[in-house]
Amino acid sequence: MLQIIINPNSGSGRGRQKWQTYRRMLNLAKLTYIHHITTSASELTSYTRSVTKPELYKYTATPNRIMVLGGDGTVNHCVNGIRDLEHTTLSYLPCGTSNDLIRTLKFPTDPYESLHALGKNSVSRKIDLGNVTFESHKKRFVVSSGIGYDAAVCNEVAHSPLKSAFNKLGLGKLIYAAVALKQFLFLQPCGCDLYVDDEEPVRFDSFLVAAFMNMRHEGGGFPFAPDADPTDGLLDVCLIGNLPKWRVPFVLPYVISGKHYGKPGVHHYRASKIRIVTDRPLCTHTDGEVIGFYKDLTYECGKERLCFVK
Fold this sequence. Notes:
Layout: E1 2-6, H1 10-28, E2 33-37, H2 41-51, H3 54-60, E3 64-70, H4 72-79, E4 88-94, H5 100-105, H6 111-116, E5 124-134, E6 137-141, E7 144-148, H7 149-158, H8 163-168, H9 172-186, E8 190-196, E9 202-213, E10 235-241, H10 248-257, E11 266-271, E12 273-286, E13 289-309
Parallel strand pairs: 1-2, 1-3, 3-4, 4-13
Antiparallel strand pairs: 5-6, 5-13, 7-9, 7-12, 8-9, 8-12, 9-10, 10-11, 12-13
Helix pairs in contact: 2-4, 7-9
């Protein structure tokens, strides 16, 4: 049985409209499915948890088939609800603002092509899942997790009263640009220690952002990790630090083109386990979803994998 999970508010509210188009095609194809329109992130995770219980496969020997209609954040909440990773496959109909997941996995954006992806010619691929542990909690991520500047932008946008108005006008990315500029002007650099694969820490007296990348892009197409491979069991870390704040704008053009490695202030690491300890709690996100303010986080990759179908 195909379980379709829909975020109606994704893509500046286009999720509900896109679902109606997709639903007509599914009915014409006479495919059997159950659809669930979510009302909140917590409810989405809870529903996914209920339909991926390990005992379901034990009694039916049928893999759990899930399709998500939404953005990267919707996929994140779904992935964090999956209880039986081994016997679950995930398909994706992108309808978000960033859609960084499809830039690596090449998911089709057209509903007709997505429908064909459910047929006999579908292609499955096992993808690494990243994990971040903070205090007594653990969360999975698919695309990336970050601490510092990028997470602070996500946090302010999420709480901005202008977000809904801009989304209705189809100008969701404009508010991100405005908040990014504001955050940069008032951003206070922070020191941190970075532990790579349990080695001695690398000290940064100041850093602006640390991105822990499972895939190549984040933030709506920025190739922070142009060489990242979501099947190698490793995370690529891009940290911008020990660089005067006024010089950061000169680095950004290289980030946009994916040619920032080796530039002054840009530090790249690749490892299966990385711990970051900051001098003060900073905003943190997973796949663009803010999880809070923390100062001691441990990132791991390669211990969990999920089968994506396209």
